[in-house]
TrEMBL record:
Belongs to the acetokinase family. The gene is buk. Its main location: cytoplasm. Keywords: ATP-binding, Cytoplasm, Kinase, Nucleotide-binding, Transferase. GO terms for biological process: acetate metabolic process. This is Probable butyrate kinase. It is found in: Cytoplasm. The keyword Kinase applies. One of its GO terms (molecular function) is butyrate kinase activity. PROSITE patterns: ACETATE_KINASE_2.
Length: 370
């Protein structure tokens, strides 16, 4: 098989990560910084497209990087409706939904498919998204809630979760679709998921406020308590607790885990309890995913920025090693995961999927006849 050249694009709130791969080898990687005050002048995330593209092109010229010969451009997905995991061709429907945020979530990742498509058109290459945050492979029993007509959906760090699982399976000499894993991404947001035979069959909707607290996220809170908290407050402000102003930010006004743990080491009891509570909630969620897999767990995998903390990893190992071996993969594989997804398609290992533009779950058939 030939060695494919892949260019990956991962837009964040104030930066855009870019990387060039030859096969699985990273030959160029940069973080394009954007001034937050300048970004604030745009009336929508998608209107940032020309600016971000120009910034990327400027840095590539400055660094002497030629994209001629690139086989595929891969953008971090966002704004799409719930879909099964895989590598998807970027077509007009993907562009339409990502540009407007069809799922109701406004996030810079929406720009990923749009920027990738712009470059692919210039260099006559393929354009893909790989395992976007909208991947939803929940099993049926994970769907229903105690409110008729309200179903569970999930938003997780699917790209990194699946890549971590794929890599760990390879390290065991097995395939991802032959294994059962509990996979956790522990960073600014915390995703905890159960993977059975290559499908992410359960997990927590971290955009909706499920799961453990995180540096900027409130996590699960009793509905009655939340309703009391909402009295006299703006709904938009309260909703931000799910993604921006909850967790460490709500308690101590900071989102940096290193700063929090340093305060704890210096005797700040509040910081110590907050840190340990977050870890305790992560462990509880891992336990719940173990029951989803009926206790048949090949490994508990930890990834994300906070996994650089020896204390966090040690606590989770002490609490959860009885379920399955705990393995730490500090940091993330998002850029590598996007390249790997494209390579699997270009090598014929997987087929590129077509985005259908409708949520993969449309309710239970039996309800339609009741």
């Amino acid at each position: 098989m030939s060695i494919h050249k892949i260019f990956t694009i991962n837009p964040g709130s104030t930066s855009t990560k870019i990387a060039l791969f030859e096969g699985k080898k990273t030959v160029y990687s940069k973080n394009v910084s954007h001034d937050a005050a300048y970004l604030a002048k745009f009336d929508s995330i998608s209107s940032q497209l020309p600016y971000r593209k120009e910034m990327i092109e400027g840095l590539l010229r400055e660094d002497g990087i030629d994209l001629n010969g690139v086989d595929a451009f891969v953008g971090r997905g966002g704004g799409l409706l719930a879909m099964e995991g895989g590598t998807y061709e970027i077509d007009e429907l993907v562009l339409e939904h990502s540009s407007k945020g069809a799922n109701g979530v406004q996030h810079p990742a929406m720009l990923g498919p749009q920027i990738a498509n712009e470059f692919a058109a210039i260099y006559k290459a393929k354009a893909y998204v790989v395992n976007p945050p909208d991947v939803d492979e929940l099993q049926d029993l994970a769907r229903m809630t105690g409110i008729k007509g309200v179903y569970r959906i999930i938003h997780l760090h699917a790209l990194n979760l699946k890549e971590t699982a794929i890599r760990h399976a390879e390290s065991m000499g097995r395939k991802y679709d032959e294994c059962n894993f509990i996979v956790c991404h522990i960073g600014g947001g915390i995703s905890i998921s159960a993977h059975r035979n290559g499908k992410m069959v359960d997990g927590y909707d971290i955009v909706g406020g499920e799961g453990p607290m995180a540096p900027t996220r409130c996590g699960s809170v009793a509905i009655a308590d939340l309703l009391n908290y909402c009295k006299g407050k703006d709904l938009k402000e309260v909703k931000q607790l799910c993604t921006k102003s909850g967790g460490f930010v709500s308690h101590m006004g900071i989102s940096d885990a290193i700063e929090l743990t340093e305060r704890a080491k210096q005797g700040d009891k509040y910081a110590e309890v907050l840190w340990n509570t977050m870890i305790y909630q992560i462990e509880k969620c891992i336990g719940s995913m173990a029951t989803v897999l009926h206790g048949k767990v090949d490994g508990i995998l930890l990834s994300g920025g906070m996994v650089y903390s020896d204390d966090l990893v040690m606590q989770i190992k002490e609490t959860c090693n009885w379920i399955a071996p705990v393995t730490a993969y500090p940091g993330e594989f998002e850029m590598e995961a996007m390249a790997a997804g494209a390579i699997r398609v270009l090598d014929g290992i997987e087929e590129a999927k077509k985005y259908k533009g409708i949520s993969c779950f449309q309710g239970f058939e039996f309800e339609q006849h009741s």
